[in-house]
Amino acid sequence: MKLPLTFLFAILLFQSLNAQERITVEDPEIRFSYELPAGWVTKDDGYYHIASPIAEEAAEHISITYFSQAVPDFKDFFEGFVEIQLPSQLTNYQIRGQGKSRIDGEEAYWVSYTHSNSENPKVNYACIQYLYPKFGQAFYLTYTAAPAIYADGLAAAQSAIWSFQAEAK
């Protein structure tokens, strides 16, 4: 049975629209890459690398940053981050869960939390943040979204985060 040419074209177009692109970012000391979710774009302000849906009004994004932090006990570092640093920086901070995972072959710690916008407490965010050490750096990979769409975007965001790979230059 022959398929109509327009049907085959539609299948190819759908596959290309849903294809993820591997993004590579070059910094002076580190090169990192990850799979960008289909329909998302990136920007880099020199401090954060951010991926978000194409829509201008997108209420979700992934931010990636890293710091030179050789930490002898990363678990203790993570616990201080969760218990001291985040509460001191965020308004109405509430932990939803935390645990361990693996990113780029390394043990990673994650925390899921909610918080409010400090300038407008009626604006809330839901986040999951992964931290892991590699090459004397602490990598911070965070998915942030409006609570109403958090669950819908979480799988795509985690897929991007779990595809993250870093290498020293």
Description:
The structure is a single chain. The protein has 169 residues and is of the alpha+beta class. 27% of the residues lie in helices and 47% in strands. The protein has a 7-stranded antiparallel β-sheet. Strands 1-2-10 form a 3-stranded antiparallel β-sheet. β6 (91-103) and β7 (106-116) form a beta hairpin.
List the helices and strands and how they pair.
Elements: H1 5-18, E1 21-26, E2 30-36, E3 40-44, E4 49-53, E5 60-68, H2 74-89, E6 91-103, E7 106-116, E8 124-134, E9 137-145, H3 147-162, E10 165-168
Antiparallel strand pairs: 1-2, 2-10, 3-4, 4-5, 5-9, 6-7, 7-8, 8-9
Overall geometry comes to: globular
Question: Can you tell me the CATH class?
Answer: Alpha Beta
Spatial order of the strands in the main sheet? 3-4-5-9-8-7-6
How many beta-strand runs?
10
How far apart are the first and last residues' alpha carbons, in Å?
Answer: 53 Å
The CATH homologous superfamily corresponds to Mog1/PsbP, alpha/beta/alpha sandwich
* Helix run count: 3
- State the CATH architecture: 3-Layer(aba) Sandwich
Our count of domains comes out at 1
What does the main sheet amount to?
7 strands, antiparallel
